[in-house]
Amino acid sequence: MAVLTSSNQVLIASVVTYLLVSIGIGLWAARRVSSSGDYMVAGRSLPLYITVATVFATWFGSETVLGTSATFLKAGLGGIVADPFGAALCLVLVGTFFAVPLYRMNLLTIGDYYAKRYGRDIEVITSLVIILSYLGWVAAQLLALGLVFNIITNNYISRETGTLIGAGIVILYTLYGGMWSVALTDFFQMTLIMAGLIWIAIAITSQIDGGAATVLAHATAHQHLNILPEPSLAGVLGFVGALITLGLGSIPQQDVFQRVMSARTEKTARWGAILGGVLYLLLAFVPIYLGYSALIIAPHEVQGFLAESGDSQMVLPYLILNHTSLLSQVLFFGALLSAIMSTASGTLLAPSTLLSENILRAVFKPKTDHDFLTLVRRVVLTFGLLVTAFALYKAHLSIFQMVENAYKIVLVGAFVPLAFGLYWKKANVMGARLSIGLGIGVWLLCESSWLADVAKLCPPQLTGFGAALAGMLLGSLLFKNKTLQPVL
């Protein structure tokens, strides 16, 4: 049986305290919820500093701290084009091109946009596409919570049990407070993330002769800082495919929309997204730096984690547990839990509100706003239980892989109708239908074993994206009589 050391006991006590504070903030925020608008977009009343915090927290989750740092050790900057570069690009693009026109429409969900622009069938299809993408994303966060509980208890709590505990906590405060709980806990958690990671970076740097310069020189010498693709068609297409998977594919995501639309003004929505994206890109390099520092401090142990039979996601926790003080361990795992829970709560709320507003509302026809709010909360609970089961079923996948895969279907099935609907007056229903049908169909075909050779040359999601563009152009130009009034 696992033995809990005094260090483990202090870590556990610190984590329990942190969790209680987070739950307390979430439940306290629930007092502000008196309508579905409060629950789904915080009454559109968040100031800039909270908007920045909650947008930043959209991305800064388990994949940033554990997944991206482990992937960088294996493949360098070229292996993490999707995240953090694509993820930061997404938020900057949202702030620059999408936040203001969508904010002016006064919508509750991104699905409402598709309904206004194209009609009911496109609303349902795109909403389902976006909802499906969240299964892998939320599951990755819950699995990471299980990993953290397993580590800090020295295997006393299994990963599976830890996943269940983490899921229960996230579901609890998201269920009651909605976007208000998400926003206020995000602000609290972002503060811990920034303070904890900066403290750890300073502590680790002090253990390396030459400090950060040594880390950078080592990474440069081993080609880890080379982000440019191989000078070949397959290399360039692979680079572009990885960049736009999150860079464009995550723009129509409900959690991004929800956090930006919760801002107090359209100016706050724009700058909250842009500043959140810049802040994310800067802080994402801290765990990357820490992970590579582990390779210098403990090269043999890290190589063991990177081996085929190892667990590369354990590199950073190993470094912290074996080469830092107890205070640093408390700060690191507090920051890690903050990152995971802030992302998990937002990504649990997002698909639940989308499913409630754009699909189930027409089925159950709630008579009052209170009835609809009750429906949304029931969906949050149901979706939370479903994604917990999915997480345990897919526990063999890496966190980075689960998150990156989540956006492919949104890229090929939802981005083109959104962007063209906002900025091309000729975009119409038939264009949207063909875009979604061809985009998803070609993508699935390229993912199959039948076209394995094509997939080696061009990423399936990039091929599907090209088909989605072609479908929008052909459908809109050939079926002009199907045009609806553009929103801009």
Written account of the structure:
This protein is an all-alpha fold and 488 residues long. The protein has one domain: Sodium/glucose cotransporter, CATH 1.20.1730. The protein has 21 helices and no strands. The chain has helices at 6-29, 36-41, 48-59, 62-75, 81-104, 110-118, 120-152, 159-205, 212-221, 233-247, 254-261, 266-297, 299-306, 315-323, 326-364, 369-393, 399-406, 408-423, 429-447, 452-457, 460-478. Helix 12 (266-297) crosses helix 13. The termini are far apart. Residues 483-488 have low confidence and may be disordered.
Name the overall outline: globular
Largest sheet: none
- CATH superfamily label: Sodium/glucose cotransporter
Structural class: mainly alpha
Distance between the termini: 64 Å
Work out the helicity level.
over 70%
What do the pLDDT scores average to?
87
Number of strands: 0
Quick one: CATH class? Answer: Mainly Alpha
Total of helices: 21
Query: Uncertain runs with pLDDT below 50, 5 residues or more?
Result: 483-488
Oligomer: single chain
- Would you tell me which CATH topology applies? Sodium/glucose cotransporter
Q: Write the element-wise H/E pattern from the N-terminal end onward.
A: HHHHHHHHHHHHHHHHHHHHH
The domain tally reads 1
> What percent of residues are in strands?
under 5%
Q: Indicate the radius of gyration in whole angstroms.
A: 22 Å
Please state the second-level CATH architecture. Answer: Up-down Bundle
